[in-house]
């Protein structure tokens, strides 16, 4: 499993723990749902800016996103 897949799995886990759909996470983060889906599938290489948006939308620190 590569880093993109690990990150995607972690994002999906955190999103579900927060009770959010991909659509809700997309709305809160300012990203679109297909992009969120691509991240969760390990198909997207995520920038630090995107990581920050996702962390803020989930109410966690960036370090939580990379705790695999």
Proportion of residues in β-strands: under 5%
Count of separate DSSP helical elements: 5
Number of strands: 0
According to CATH, what is the class?
Answer: Mainly Alpha
Helix fraction by DSSP (H/I, runs of at least 4): 55-70%
Helices and strands, in N-to-C order? HHHHH
CATH architecture: Orthogonal Bundle
User: What is the rounded Rg?
Assistant: 10 Å
CATH homologous superfamily grouping: lambda repressor-like DNA-binding domains
The CATH topology label is: 434 Repressor (Amino-terminal Domain)
Distance linking N and C termini: 11 Å
- Described by the principal axes of the CA atoms, the overall outline is globular
Largest sheet: none
Mean pLDDT: 97
What is the domain total for the residues? 1
Note poorly predicted spans: none
**What class do helices, strands and sheet pairing give?**
mainly alpha
Any chance you could write out the topology, listing elements then pairs?
Elements lengths: L2 H15 L4 H8 L3 H8 L7 H11 L3 H4 L3
Helix pairs in contact: 2-3
Organism: Belliella baltica (strain DSM 15883 / CIP 108006 / LMG 21964 / BA134)
GO molecular function: DNA binding; DNA-binding transcription factor activity
InterPro entries: Cro/C1-type_HTH (IPR001387), Lambda_DNA-bd_dom_sf (IPR010982), TransReg_Diox_bact_type (IPR050807)
Which features does this protein show?
68 residues, mainly alpha, 434 Repressor (Amino-terminal Domain), 5 helices, globular, Cro/C1-type_HTH
């Amino acid at each position: 499993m590569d880093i993109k897949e690990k990150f995607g799995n972690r994002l999906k886990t955190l999103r579900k723990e927060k009770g959010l759909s991909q659509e809700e996470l997309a709305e809160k983060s300012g990203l679109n749902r297909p992009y969120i889906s691509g991240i969760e599938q390990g198909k997207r290489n995520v920038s630090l800016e995107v990581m920050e948006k996702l962390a803020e939308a989930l109410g966690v620190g960036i370090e939580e996103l990379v705790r695999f």
